[in-house]
Design goal:
single chain; binds iron/sulfur cluster; four-stranded antiparallel β-sheet; 505 residues; 3 domains
């Protein structure tokens, strides 16, 4: 199949071999599971259990908190011991509401509804199953999967993203090698859900075994309208818009969505989770996770229950805590440095990268920008990172938006090549969060103003009504005078809000 290329990007050392030398095993069952209510984009889930409740594996313990949300399920059986704020994976060491389950070691499943053939299910029912299973984009975005599978427009191409372009991460690679049939079945389910005309599985050229396994699964299952495209290993080829460009040649417009060019893109791990949800009735309870880095004695991939404490996982792979400098959830380019090792593994956590002291310079000396233009050369979105930096630094947020700040995918290519060591992405994140917070403040202020205006209107109307009643009752007043008094009262009410007469006149 034909391939195109995207602007910029960088070639990075892969560091992927060490964690792919042995088959994936299940991580030991932890003593406790910590399940944050917000592991997805959108509203946090709302608990439906209480402290002291017994729960079974697969039981929903928190329901979606809105349309854009996802439920949370017990990853193993046990007792709910706490519903409280605990540290969650976030660079600031943020606390957020979590449900803690003390596991009973039995791993007892709730009854599951099995489904033998997804073709018996209507697309809407497929989406409902995916929603109920709490499946979110497992590539890192965490967007509820059922929403993407209801695009409301014709889907020409459904792309399965197996690029996995960040260094060190190999969880998707291993999943393709070991569970290719589940991924292909998941792809077919998604194809039915969105009625896609054809599908493409995109895999980077540094994963030949994965590509072979996927090809064999396609042949065995006998799909006719699905092809594999091998894409060059160039970071960030796995970015949604970059991958769409590489495999279809189409550019998703600035601020737009893939569906605008007839494409829906999902990650391969999401496809495997969808297969399990639809065929086996299993919610999203576990995922493949790469545990690697110089501080890890036995780098490998494990199948991990969502909610397992990071420390347990690092322990099980022989991590040298004495010389540990930093643990990153995700890859070195887009991952987040964990402030606390007790945080749990969440749905979007594809990798734990444990680095030894001295391996990375945490705070390199930053010098002024020399206007070399390297950052613009590598930006895969064709932005002007240097200008974004200046405007973010001077808090000129309107200007950052004029320079399409929100198109920035925070890939870190610009910072990677910056000879001045400027932490460019930090500035973009700061500007984005300031803009969002200003927008939120404005939204709240608008609501408060609207409420105040309504209240004023109501008070004026009530006053007018009282005056009108009073005028009607006043003895010795002739009809004409009463009418004039009522009219005057109503006029006063109207004047309190021009153009909006009291609604019960
Ligand atoms: S790469 Fe760094 S030094 Fe060069 S123009 Fe961009 S911000 Fe300035
Ligand atoms: S972090 Fe943003 S500005 Fe920098 S290269 Fe990536 S997309 Fe461009």
């Amino acid at each position: 199949m034909k391939r195109w290329s995207f602007h910029g990007g960088v070639e990075l050392p892969g560091h992927k071999q060490k964690s792919t030398t042995r088959p994936v095993e299940s991580a030991p069952l932890p003593k406790q599971l910590i399940l944050p209510l917000s592991q997805h984009l959108g509203a946090p889930a709302e608990p439906v259990v209480n402290v002291g409740d017994k729960v079974q594996k697969g039981e929903m313990i928190a329901k979606p908190g809105g349309f854009v949300s996802a439920p949370v399920h017990a990853s193993s059986s046990g007792i709910v011991t706490a519903i409280e704020e605990l540290p969650v994976p976030h660079p600031s060491g943020l606390y957020a509401p979590c449900i803690t389950i003390k596991t009973d070691g039995k791993d007892t499943w709730l009854n599951r509804e099995q489904q033998t053939d997804y073709r018996q299910l209507e697309p809407a029912l497929i989406r409902e199953r995916i929603r109920e299973a709490g499946i979110v984009g497992l590539g890192g975005a965490g967007f509820p999967a059922f929403i993407k599978l209801n695009p409301g427009k014709t889907v020409k191409t459904l792309i399965l993203n197996g690029a996995e372009c960040e260094p060190y991460i190999t969880s998707d690679d291993m999943l393709m090698r070991e569970r290719a049939d589940e991924i292909v079945q998941g792809l077919l389910i998604m194809q039915r859900a969105v009625q896609a005309l054809h599908c493409i599985i995109a895999i980077e050229d540094n994963k030949p075994q994965a590509a072979q396994a996927m090809q064999a699964a396609l042949q065995q299952i006998g799909t006719v309208d699905t092809g594999i495209v091998i894409v060059p290993a160039r970071y960030p080829a796995g970015g949604e818009k970059q991958l769409i460009k590489v495999v279809t040649g189409q550019e998703v417009p600035s601020g737009g969505l893939p569906i605008q060019v007839g494409v829906v893109c999902q990650n391969i791990a999401t496809a495997a989770a969808i297969y399990r949800a639809v065929y086996r009735g299993e919610p999203l309870l576990s995922r493949y996770v790469t545990i690697t880095g110089s501080a890890v004695a036995e780098p490998r991939n494990l199948e991990v229950l969502i909610g397992t404490p990071v420390r347990d996982l690092l322990d099980s792979c022989g991590t040298d805590f004495t010389h540990l400098q930093e643990v990153i959830m995700g890859g070195p380019m887009m991952g987040i440095a964990l402030a606390d090792h007790e945080v749990p593994l969440v749905k979007t956590g594809n990798c734990l990268l444990a680095l030894k002291q001295g391996e990375i310079e945490l705070h390199p000396t930053v010098v002024p920008c020399i206007r070399c233009g390297n950052c613009a050369d590598v930006c895969p979105v064709n932005l002007l990172p240097q200008q974004l930096y200046w405007h973010a630094r001077s808090r000129d947020f309107d200007k950052t938006q004029e320079y399409d700040l929100f198109d920035c995918i925070e890939c870190g290519c610009c910072a990677y090549v910056c000879p001045s060591n400027i932490p460019l992405v930090h500035y973009y994140r700061f500007a984005k969060s300031e803009i969002r917070s200003q927008q939120e403040q404005k939204r709240k202020a608008d609501i408060a103003r609207e409420r105040h205006e309504k209240r004023e209107q109501r008070l004026a109307r009530e006053k007018a009504e009282r005056a009108a009643r009073h005028a009607r009752k006043k003895p010795g007043t002739d009809d004409e005078t009463k009418k004039a008094a009522i009219q005057a009262a109503l006029e006063r009410a109207r004047a309190s809000k021009p153009g909006t007469p009291p609604d019960d006149v």
